[in-house]
Amino acid sequence: MELIALxxxxxxQLLLExxxxxxxxxxxxxxxxxxxxxxxxxxxxxxxxxxxEVLESLGISSEEELSMIKYALLRIEEGNYFTCAExxxxxxxxxxxxxxxxPHCVDCAEKSER
Length: 114
Ligand SMILES: [Zn+2]
Fold this sequence. Notes:
Elements: H1 2-33, H2 42-78, H3 93-98, H4 106-113
Helix pairs in contact: 1-2
The structure holds zinc ion.
């Protein structure tokens, strides 16, 4: 049991760090998108708009990851972080090391992607 508690702490730290990083990134993306650069000429404005689209999709994927992280933290609090939300099988640690926010084992994740 103690080992599991230590593991939980490890992943909680990982998730909290990532959450901080993402929150900071989302804030700075918001700032960048709202820039009002009236002095820029047409070609600059066009490339800024393109840049905004990239920023926007980056912002969206960051927000998606952030909500998955919040969900994972909730699962840690509930004590079912190491269990697949779909089939109830344990999620391998190697998978959680790569994707600490995933609520699914490999099988279920592949099924939902199809
Ligand atoms: Zn599963």
